[in-house]
Write a structure and sequence with these properties.
With 368 residues, the protein is of the alpha+beta class. It has eleven helices and 15 strands. The longest helix has 27 residues.
Length: 368
């Protein structure tokens, strides 16, 4: 069994371990893998096992547990990991704040998010590193996600964003034969997102007011406003249950997803694009409300919209500094999808990159 070290940091219990009796902690990890857990059950051990089999070993794992009551974070076998730390919280902070807490403790150059209900392919980190070498100025990357129960079905190929203010996970539920090549997507899905750690923290990390849902789209949008792009890496593969912990269509998911979608749009959309897209946003919101009534989900949809609108003005005020610094509104608009039917069919939205960008990073921002 691994050796453990237990301590307390700002009221948070931390537990560290070496992978086995012959290994040592990674002194300067390239990757800090963050797993946010809340009652993850047996999924968590499977995620840990997949990391134990990574071909690259220059990583640490930080598992932050949001006061789980099922013991899913206390009985883990971390034998195969090069470096492991458990942050045992005394309350449920939600995904956004928990990720930020772990990011502040992370020692790696890259922050890699892995959902507790996801399993990484053995060469996941290796393929991420290869992509980083091809795009040396990129600051965020997206993994290829497959349905954990059926690899022939996609769980996602990066997050897409409709210019009228509606995000979706590109390719969710579609055939894996539609997996695109390497290219640019709007932002990474949090289940397998990769961020340059210093850049992530310099831009405030995830917005903790979101609690969970759309917090990954929001930080991706803010990095876009700063001139960064997101590279989708089709060979960096994970298998994801998808909604295995919160439920894909639970009241909780519908409410937070709806409210946070409104907040993301209000907070980040530059004023010229807001004026152009607001009528479409209102029309599509009305359609979703009617659709919710037809399928028996109108209550949480309406409550999410109301709370989203109530907080929209404050969110827009808080997002003003980022919107003022966007290098090119037109380039931002080009990174978004314009066809609502693409969203309704959950089609992939990945733009192929010219090969010249692979080597010189000519369209990437070098700003932090």
């Amino acid at each position: 069994m691994p050796n453990h070290k237990v301590g307390f940091d700002s009221g948070i219990m931390t537990l560290s371990s070496n992978a086995d009796d012959t290994s040592t902690c990674v002194e300067h990890p390239t990757f800090s893998i963050v797993i946010v857990n809340y009652n993850g059950g047996s999924y968590v051990q499977k995620a840990i096992n997949s990391l134990a089999h990574q071909s690259r070993r220059d990583f640490e794992v930080i598992l932050i547990d949001n006061a789980s009551s099922d013991g899913s974070a206390t009985q883990l076998d971390t034998t195969g990991l090069p470096d492991f730390e458990l942050m045992a919280e005394t309350e449920n902070h939600g995904y956004a704040r928990a990720t930020n807490l772990a990011a502040r403790k992370a020692r790696g150059e890259w922050l890699v998010c892995l959902n507790p209900d996801a399993e990484a392919a053995p060469d996941w980190l290796a393929k991420i590193a290869e992509g980083q070498a091809r795009y040396p100025t990129a600051r965020m990357f997206a993994s290829a996600q497959f349905d954990a129960t059926d690899p022939a079905v996609l769980d996602g190929a990066g997050d897409a964003y409709l210019i009228f203010g509606f995000p979706w996970r590109g390719g969710f539920g579609r055939s894996s034969t539609e997996l695109p090549g390497e290219g640019e997507c709007f932002s990474p899905c949090g289940a397998g997102a990769v961020f340059h750690a210093a850049t992530f923290l310099d831009h405030g990390g995830m917005d903790e007011r979101f609690f969970c849902f759309c917090e990954d789209v929001d930080i991706g949008f803010r990095l876009r406003l700063a001139g960064h792009t997101c590279i989708f890496l089709p060979d960096a593969k994970i298998h994801h249950v998808g909604g295995g912990l919160s439920g894909r269509a639970s009241d909780f998911a519908i409410y937070h997803g709806t409210r946070n979608r409104v907040w993301t749009y209000a907070k980040n959309m530059p004023t010229p694009l807001l004026f152009i897209t607001l009528p479409g946003h209102v029309a599509l919101s009305a359609y979703l409300l009617v659709r919710g009534a037809m399928i028996g989900r109108v209550r949480q949809t309406w409550r999410g919209m109301k709370d989203g609108l109530r907080g929209a003005a404050e969110m827009r005020r808080r997002g003003r500094p980022g919107r003022q610094n966007v290098p090119s509104v037109w380039q931002l608009a080009r990174s978004m999808a314009w066809d609502p039917f693409r969203m309704s069919r959950r089609k992939i939205h990945v733009r192929m990159r010219p090969r010249r960008d692979v080597f010189n990073g000519s369209s990437e921002s070098t700003a932090p």
